[in-house]
Amino acid sequence: MINFLGLDIGTSGVKAVILDEHDKERASASAALAVDRPRPLWSEQDPEAWWRATEAVFDRLAREQPALMSDIAAIGLSGQMLGVTLLDATDRPLRPALIWNDGRAVQECALLLEKVPGFVDIAGCRPMAGFCAPKILWLARHEPDAIAKTRRILLAKDYVRLRLCGEAISDLADSSATLLMDTRAGTWSEAAIMACGISRDVLPRLVESGAEAGTLRSELSRRWNMQPGVIVAGGAGDNMCGAVGADVVNRGDAYISLGTSGVYFVANDQFVPAHGQGMHTHRHAVSGLFAQHGCVLSAAGALSWLAGLLSIESIERFLSDIEAADIESEQIPIFTPYLSGERTPHDNPCATAAFSNLSLAVGPLHLGRAVLEGVAFAIADCHDALLGVGTPIDDIALIGGGARSRFWGEIIASTIGRPLRIPPLAALGPAVGAARLARKAKGGCLVAAAADSGARIVPRADLAEGLRERRARYREHYPLLSREKPVPSASVHL
Question: How confident is the model at residue 490 (pLDDT cuts 50, 70, 90)?
Answer without folding.
Answer: very low
